[in-house]
User: Which sequence fits this backbone?
């Protein structure tokens, strides 16, 4: 969806650090995904926030799995456990998932909170959001975003957009920075709305972003969920 940068096979060009590349690719996400969704398809910003959050959440899950599999020092002694839901779905819990979502310097929550602070907007109660997502695991309410109207896309349905994140991961040289890319695109969405449409409820938008991120980071998606079948 976002296209790919042509590979450079020379060794003369210095490597770009992951955060710089994440910022570059966040502009690609905004220009080729967010803008068309908003301007051409007319989707409201809260729905786009749910899309970005879902992509960020699944990317965070992949980052945690990669960090554990490669024995990255950043994930040393971190845990990841699988929980079976009564509905037949399976979920991940543990501090390995929490790191890219909530606890790292460049976690999704750190970046969402950063833009709220810059705009001087109150923070949503992240403890309540975390508790809500955890309490709905295995139920029909899981991934149904409370600040969106009935009939709006759910996290489960939005996971089908993952092909975009998968393509993006090839352009970001570190798995931890793929969710960063979507969180930075969210920052730009929030700031743009704050300038052109002050009526947008930025607290609700941030809550949607984090609720979708948390849900997508936990659910173990099938290939069908990810649009791979």
Assistant:
């Amino acid at each position: 969806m976002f296209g790919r940068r042509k590979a450079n096979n020379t060794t003369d060009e210095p490597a770009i650090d992951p955060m710089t590349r994440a910022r570059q690719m966040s502009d690609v996400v905004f220009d080729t995904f967010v803008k068309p969704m908003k301007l051409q398809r007319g989707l409201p910003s809260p729905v786009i926030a749910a899309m970005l959050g879902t992509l960020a959440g699944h990317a965070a899950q992949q980052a945690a799995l990669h960090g554990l599999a490669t024995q990255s020092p950043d994930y040393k002694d971190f845990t990841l456990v699988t929980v079976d839901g009564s509905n037949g779905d399976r979920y991940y819990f543990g501090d390995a998932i929490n790191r890219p979502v909530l606890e790292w310097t460049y976690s999704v929550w750190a970046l969402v909170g950063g833009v709220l602070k810059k705009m001087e907007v109150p923070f949503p109660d992240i403890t309540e959001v975390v508790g809500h997502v955890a309490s709905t695991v295995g139920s029909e309410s899981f991934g149904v975003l409370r600040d969106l109207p009935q009939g709006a896309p759910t996290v489960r349905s939005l996971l089908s957009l993952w092909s975009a994140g998968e393509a993006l991961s090839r352009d970001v040289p570190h798995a931890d920075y793929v969710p960063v890319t979507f969180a930075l695109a969210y920052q730009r969405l929030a700031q743009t709305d704050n300038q052109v449409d002050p009526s947008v409820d930025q607290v609700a938008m941030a809550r949607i972003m984090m609720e979708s991120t948390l849900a997508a980071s936990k659910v173990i998606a099938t290939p069908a969920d990810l649009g791979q079948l």
About this structure: The longest strand covers residues 81-84. Residues 160 and 224 are 8 Å apart (CA to CA). Residues 3-11 have pLDDT under 50 and may be disordered. The chain has nine helices and two strands.
